[in-house]
Fold this sequence. Notes:
Blueprint: H1 3-18, H2 22-32, H3 39-58, H4 61-84, H5 88-111, H6 117-134, H7 140-146, H8 154-173, H9 177-200, H10 203-207, H11 220-224, H12 236-250
Helix pairs in contact: 1-4, 1-8, 2-4, 3-4, 3-5, 3-6, 4-5, 5-6, 6-9, 8-9
Amino acid sequence: MSVVAIAASAVTIAMFISQLSIIQQxxxxxxxxxxxxxxxxxxxxxxxxxxxxxxLIKHDHTITFVNGTGALISxxxxxxxxxxxxxxxxxxxxxxxxxIAGVVLVSYVDQSKDxxxxxxxxxxCCFMSLLFLASPLSHMGAVIARRDASVLLPSVAALAFFNNxxxxxxxxxxxxxxMIMPNLVGAFFCSLQLALIAFYGRAAxxxxxxxxxxxxxxSPLDEAIGASSxxxxxxxxxxxxxEISHDNLGA
Length: 251
């Protein structure tokens, strides 16, 4: 493995592991009879499975290993959602819908005799990544309106930027446009987050003023739940934002 592959794998797996922090929130929400949004983890699991398949198609051990790890972590988190949910049937239906979507897409690329099937599948992987990576920017309007970027986490945004750049370089080295495109766009999204943080600062984080989560705009992922259940491997931004929302609601 090259230095770029090792670095990209390490950062991505670290970001996958960071998702496990949601388990404590689930336990806390269960005690308070509250709910924690599951959509981002459904997307993370589906995205990881699709990129895992992509790695297998391309015989790329790095992509396969990283997303195989991500898929296992995501599935474990979904199991914790089921365990700590008061509405298990609803969780089961959402997980089932996600699983069906994954089976259909993987079966499509396996069974199709169309030579363009792999290209279509690759584009679906890219779309999933872009949908996931764009979600933190759903808070842009609120950040500008309040002139306060406390809802955005600089450490996570910086790590995500670094991660995207590494995978874009990895894609360039391997001449893989489906790795280059989503990660360059993801790096751009992270740059916008860092620019907002630099320009508006984090006043609420310093003063501990509550954020009105009810007035925060829906993310692209929230809007997508009515239509479907779906690096592609960057859940950390969303996990941290969920933490902030729940902390402020409990303040």
